[in-house]
Structure formats: C-alpha cells, structure tokens
C-alpha cells in the first residue's frame, strides 16, 4: 500500500489507495477552479466599478426587476439614457453583469471591430433554438464560417437582384390593399397592422426567396402558419429560462409543436431546393441560370445555388436551407414592425401623412396601373425621411448583444474587461437626449438631406453597423418605401382610440397588436 506523508497537514503517514489519491486530486482541481473563479469574478467586479449602475433591488436579484419587456421597461430605458448618457451596468442576479451602451461614440469600438474580436453573445440569441429553426445561417454563425458565408451571400443582395423584387413588393401590397378595401366595405376599418403587414411581408419574402406563391394573404397556408407559430413560440421560450435546453423543452406540448412546425418549414425548403437541383440537372445549370438572369427572375435560391467561393466551392443543400430559412425569419417581422410603426407615426401626424401622399400622387400622376419602379424610389425624399424618423423612434430591433473576446477600450479611457456581455441598445441610442434633442418627438426633418445635421454615423443604427450589419437593409428599405407609398395613395390612416403599449421582444411590437383605422381614398384605385 502506498504511504502518503501528510505531515505538513499535521497528520501522520496514512495509507492511501489509488482511489483516495484520485479523490484528492479531484478535490484539489475543483478547489483550484472555484478559487480561480472567485478570483476572476472579484477582479471583474473591481474592474467594472468604473461603470455607474442604477440602484439594485437587493444583492440577489440585482436589476432583474428593471428588465421588463413592456411599455414601462422602455420608459425605464429612456430614463436611464437621460441619467447615464453613455454606458451603465446592470446585474441580472448576483453573478451576471451586463453593460448597456446608449451612446454612439461608445458603441463604435464594439460595432466597428472585426466580428471575431467582438462576436455575438450566444445566450442572448439562444443559439440552440436558432440551430433548430434554421440551422446556423448567417445571423447566428461565428468566426471563419460567418465570414465565408457573408462573402458568398453578399451577391444575393446586389442591386441588380433586388431590382427585380420591386414588382413583387408592388403586387404583395396590392393584394393586402384589396383585402383592406373589402374589409372596409363590410364596415371593418379598424385593423391590426402587425397581423396584416406580417402576412404581406411573408408573402413577398416567399416569392423572393423561393419564387413560390402560397396565396397566404387570401387563404391560410400551412408553411406561413408554421413560420408565424415558430416566431411566437421562440418569444415565449425566451421568457422561460428553464426551457432553453432542448431536452426539457421537447418534453412540453409547446416544444412538440415547435418541433412539428420546424419539420414542416424544413421540408418545404428542402423540397424547393431538390426540385431546383433537378431542373438544373435536366436543363443544364448554366443555360437555366442564364435564362433566368436574363428574364430577371432569379430568386434567392438560384443565387445561393450559383454562389461559389474563391476555390470554386459552392454551398451544400443544408447550407442553402439554413440561409433561406434565416432570410424568412430575419426578414418578415422586422420589416413588418418598421412598416406598422411608420403608419402609426403618420396616423398621429396627419400633416406629414398628407405631405407624403402628395409626393406619391405627384410621382404616379397619369400612371395606370399605379406601380412604383426601382428607379423612382429616389423621387420619394419626404417619404424616406418619414420612414427613417420612424425607424429612429420605433427601431424594429431594439437591441443587439455582443461578447467581448478581449478588453475593449472606450473613448473616455475606461475599459470593458474581456469576457463581459454588452447590450448595444439601439432604442437607447435613438432616444438619447444628448444625441437627439427632444427624442420623443416625431420629426422627419431630422433626416432632411438638404440640411444635414452634425451627428455621428452611429447615432442612427436601425440596421446595426460595421461588419455584422443587416445584409437585408436595402431589401427592407425598398419594400417599406413601395408599400408605404401605395398604402398612402389608397388609404388615409387614423389612430385608434387607445394608445398602443410598446412591447420590446426580439422585434418591437405593440401589446395586443398595433391597431389603426384605415379609410379608403377615392382616386387611389389599384
Ligand atoms: C426593417 C427591417 C430590418 C431591420 C430593422 C433589420 C435589422 C437588423 C439588425 C439590427 C441586424 C444585426 C443583428 C445583430 O447584430 O445581432 C440584422 C442582421 C441581419 N439581417 Fe436584418 N433587418 C431588417 C430586415 C432584414 C431582411 C429583409 C433580411 C433578409 C431578407 C434581413 C436579414 C438579416 C441577416 C441575414 C442578418 C445577419 C447579418 C450578419 O450577421 O452578417 N434583415 N438585421
């Protein structure tokens, strides 16, 4: 038997079995890990002391009670912006610090750094959920995989490709408006903008991504219902921290619904890809794609099938599915939120609404059918100003999150220690009174190109900024301009009696929907 001298502990020699030794080594390792964690935690706390924080409820809950996804939560962010102006610290429980940044100069080192140095914080994005939703598409991927994907996908959003989608946007808006006309003639003028516009954005995305017309605005579509169900289930799951782990979630009825809807969405995308590959083989890929490019009917799937990297390597079917599903998820709610809130803001400001309408009427005078074309988008300057001001006041994505893979030096010399999580509060920046005077006032002239304001380029970041900015930005702006122009041409929008209560989830919504009244206008025929 092995003799172990523990005289340094004041003990005599003891007989130690290998098992005892193993236990001792294990315990020492565990103790050293705990001590090292305590030291790191203490050190981090000391380094974070330079950041101010609002009063805590108590040491255990920290600022949990401030993190509310409702109107009060947003008002609190506005108050904090007034109080702290640049960056402040929140504790979610006793051990989880989060830095919230609300000033453009302070987000610059995070947004402009290479994506590998300041990656996304994966807890915030619930990567495990995202994996199941769409595979690791561009939105959730990281490191070398992300930069490879971004290079391959950038051509899909080139102007030449986007131009051909303008017809689709016009057509999808026409369908929505025909429905509104019908509802109004039946006496239903009070409509939930989110419901109607989300269906419209999904309709146009399905046509742009897959060249598939499910007629979802007119009759229920299984695929679209599944996408809407998944979006709602993800929000619910975000709020239930214990259900973040797949194995627990799938034991619940909601988890099973989630899995079923995922399967349906994946099967749809797989079927389109398979069918397209078969056509490519039977017609010859180059001829097929050349003909489509000439007829300007290339959809995202075609562009993804065409994509090749420097070594001539293309995307696998699984990659294509992940990207296509990501576009559907990242593109529909966000654009619907942007459009719904700009209609709300114009309903509240009839003078701006009328000015936009005049601009559109002028542009489409003597034109039948009423259709906006790509080259004409620049001729709607006031309408564009109104959209931008709405994206400022009601940013569709209220915040994004990053994890510092190394120390980050802020402009005033303070340092965010490596390993900390930062929330870049797009809402907070857009409502910061030191950046935007009277931030709560809807004033489109802030974006008047004739009198440019001296502002940081990061003062207005609805689509984020830097290497990981929104790849669909021009797509979304184009769709919003077309749909808003046609809507104002055909309808007057009026506020509902009840003020909406804002609801910041992954996108900015309104509790119970965003209700407005729509009045058909004479002379705004489709
Ligand atoms: C008004 C509409 C939209 C807004 C406000 C918006 C906003 C954003 C924001 C803030 C990000 C950065 C997310 C982050 O850093 O975590 C982002 C990323 C992204 N968006 Fe959008 N988006 C919109 C529309 C779209 C559309 C229409 C598409 C696709 C068709 C799209 C696809 C994406 C993708 C793929 C990314 C990830 C880019 C990357 O990480 O490289 N978005 N978007």
Automatic annotation (TrEMBL):
<keyword id="KW-0560">Oxidoreductase</keyword>
<dbReference type="InterPro" id="IPR017972">
    <property type="entry name" value="Cyt_P450_CS"/>
</dbReference>
<feature type="binding site" description="axial binding residue">
    <location>
        <position position="470"/>
    </location>
    <ligand>
        <name>heme</name>
    </ligand>
</feature>
<keyword id="KW-0812">Transmembrane</keyword>
<keyword id="KW-0472">Membrane</keyword>
<keyword id="KW-0521">NADP</keyword>
<keyword id="KW-1133">Transmembrane helix</keyword>
<dbReference type="InterPro" id="IPR050196">
    <property type="entry name" value="Cytochrome_P450_Monoox"/>
</dbReference>
<keyword id="KW-0349">Heme</keyword>
<dbReference type="GO" id="GO:0016705">
    <property type="term" value="F:oxidoreductase activity, acting on paired donors, with incorporation or reduction of molecular oxygen"/>
</dbReference>
<keyword id="KW-0408">Iron</keyword>
<dbReference type="InterPro" id="IPR036396">
    <property type="entry name" value="Cyt_P450_sf"/>
</dbReference>
<dbReference type="GO" id="GO:0005506">
    <property type="term" value="F:iron ion binding"/>
</dbReference>
<keyword id="KW-0256">Endoplasmic reticulum</keyword>
<dbReference type="InterPro" id="IPR001128">
    <property type="entry name" value="Cyt_P450"/>
</dbReference>
<keyword id="KW-0479">Metal-binding</keyword>
<comment type="similarity">
    <text>Belongs to the cytochrome P450 family.</text>
</comment>
<keyword id="KW-0732">Signal</keyword>
<dbReference type="InterPro" id="IPR002401">
    <property type="entry name" value="Cyt_P450_E_grp-I"/>
</dbReference>
<protein>
    <recommendedName>
        <fullName>Docosahexaenoic acid omega-hydroxylase CYP4F3-like</fullName>
    </recommendedName>
</protein>
<keyword id="KW-0503">Monooxygenase</keyword>
<dbReference type="Pfam" id="PF00067">
    <property type="entry name" value="p450"/>
</dbReference>
<dbReference type="GO" id="GO:0004497">
    <property type="term" value="F:monooxygenase activity"/>
</dbReference>
<dbReference type="GO" id="GO:0005789">
    <property type="term" value="C:endoplasmic reticulum membrane"/>
</dbReference>
<feature type="signal peptide">
    <location>
        <begin position="1"/>
        <end position="16"/>
    </location>
</feature>
<dbReference type="GO" id="GO:0020037">
    <property type="term" value="F:heme binding"/>
</dbReference>
């Amino acid at each position: 038997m092995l003799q172990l001298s523990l005289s340094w502990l004041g003990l005599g020699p003891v007989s130690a079995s290998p098992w005892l030794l193993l236990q001792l080594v294990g315990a020492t390792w565990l103790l050293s890990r705990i001590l090292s964690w305590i030291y790191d935690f203490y050190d981090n706390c000391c380094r974070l002391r330079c950041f101010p924080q609002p009063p805590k409820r108590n040491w255990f809950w920290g600022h949990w009670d401030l993190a509310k996804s409702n109107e009060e939560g947003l008002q609190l962010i506005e108050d904090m912006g007034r109080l702290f102006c640049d960056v402040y610290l929140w504790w979610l429980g006793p051990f989880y610090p989060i830095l919230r940044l609300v000033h453009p100069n302070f987000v610059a080192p995070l947004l402009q750094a290479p994506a590998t140095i300041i990656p996304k914080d994966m807890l915030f994005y619930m990567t495990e959920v995202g994996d199941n939703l769409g595979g690791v598409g561009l939105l959730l991927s990281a490191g070398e995989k992300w930069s490879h994907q971004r290079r391959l996908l950038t051509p899909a959003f080139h102007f030449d490709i986007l131009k051909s989608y303008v017809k689709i946007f016009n057509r999808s808006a026409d369908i929505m408006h025909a429905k509104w006309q019908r509802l109004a003639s039946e006496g239903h003028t009070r409509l939930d903008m989110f419901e109607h516009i989300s269906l419209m954005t999904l309709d146009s995305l399905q046509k742009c991504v897959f060249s598939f017309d499910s007629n979802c605005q007119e009759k229920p579509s299984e695929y679209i219902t599944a996408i809407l169900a998944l979006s709602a289930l993800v929000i619910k799951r975000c709020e239930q921290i214990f259900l973040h782990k797949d194995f627990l979630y799938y034991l619940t009825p909601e988890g099973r619904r989630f899995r079923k809807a995922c399967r349906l969405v994946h099967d749809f995308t797989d079927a389109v890809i398979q069918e397209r590959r078969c056509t490519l083989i039977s017609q010859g890929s180059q001829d097929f794609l050349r003909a489509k490019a000439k007829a300007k009917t290339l959809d995202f799937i075609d562009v993804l099938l065409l994509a090749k990297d420097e070594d001539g390597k293309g995307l696998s079917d699984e990659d294509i599915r992940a990207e296509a599903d990501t576009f559907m998820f990242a593109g529909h709610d966000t654009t619907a939120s942007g459009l719904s809130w700009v209609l709300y803001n114009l309903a509240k400001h009839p003078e701006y609404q009328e000015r936009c309408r005049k601009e559109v009427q002028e542009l489409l005078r003597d034109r039948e059918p009423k259709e906006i074309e790509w080259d004409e988008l620049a001729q709607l300057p006031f309408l564009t100003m109104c959209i931008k001001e709405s994206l400022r006041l009601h940013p569709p994505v209220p915040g994004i999150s990053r994890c510092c893979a190394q120390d980050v030096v802020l402009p005033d010399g303070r340092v965010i220690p490596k390993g900390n999580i930062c929330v870049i509060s797009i809402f907070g920046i857009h409502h910061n009174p030191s950046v935007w005077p009277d931030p709560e006032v809807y004033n489109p002239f802030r974006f008047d190109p004739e009198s440019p304001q001296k502002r940081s380029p990061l003062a207005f970041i609805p689509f984020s900024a830097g290497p990981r900015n929104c790849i669909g930005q021009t797509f979304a702006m184009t769709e919003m301009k077309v749909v808003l122009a046609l809507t104002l041409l055909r309808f007057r929008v009026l506020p509902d009696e009840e003020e909406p209560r804002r609801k910041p989830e992954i996108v900015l919504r309104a509790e119970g929907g965003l209700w407005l009244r729509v009045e058909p206008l004479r002379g705004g025929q489709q």
